[in-house]
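Input (structure):
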């Protein structure tokens, strides 16, 4: 619900202000499962990728966004949950493996799933070694993978 509200209110404003240049949108299917794999240089990547894809994209997010104590933590949990983010404990191997099951479930529902194969934001904008999560999710789900290259989102940050 929160995603839809933001799509109708904030997305048009972002398109007008930042005027993102998009090439290859035709490779993103309008419906059905798809994995969108992009480089991660800014927190804004999770805003501009769905904006460009013109569909809701579910992402993994570090568990701290969902389990931080206090009022601020509760607000963060509601916000990120409302955007369809899936919590993952990056410190626990078993929890990270279980998150792959969650990603496959998201794809089995016919949704778009976004992943940053490097596993975290790049501190300097360079592309780093990929982790195996993308391949595992793609093999288990059979969903097509659309590679995405993001440029300039650091300036938004």
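Output (sequence):
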């Amino acid at each position: 619900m929160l995603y839809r509200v933001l799509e109708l209110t904030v997305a048009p404003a972002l398109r007008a202000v930042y005027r993102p240049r998009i090439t290859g949108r035709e490779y993103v299917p309008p419906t059905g499962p798809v994995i969108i794999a992009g480089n991660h240089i800014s927190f804004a990547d999770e805003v501009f990728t769905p904006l460009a894809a013109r569909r809701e994209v579910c992402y993994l997010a570090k568990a701290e966004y969902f389990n931080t104590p206090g009022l601020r933590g509760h607000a963060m949990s509601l916000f990120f949950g409302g955007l369809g983010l899936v919590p993952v404990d990056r410190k626990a191997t078993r929890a990270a493996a279980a998150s792959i099951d969650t990603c496959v479930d998201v794809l089995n529902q016919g949704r778009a799933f976004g992943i940053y194969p490097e596993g975290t934001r790049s501190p300097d904008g360079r592309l780093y070694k990929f982790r195996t999560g993308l391949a595992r999710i793609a093999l288990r789900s059979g969903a097509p993978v659309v590679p995405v290259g993001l440029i300039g989102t650091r300036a938004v940050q």
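Notes: The chain has seven helices and five strands. The mean pLDDT is 86.
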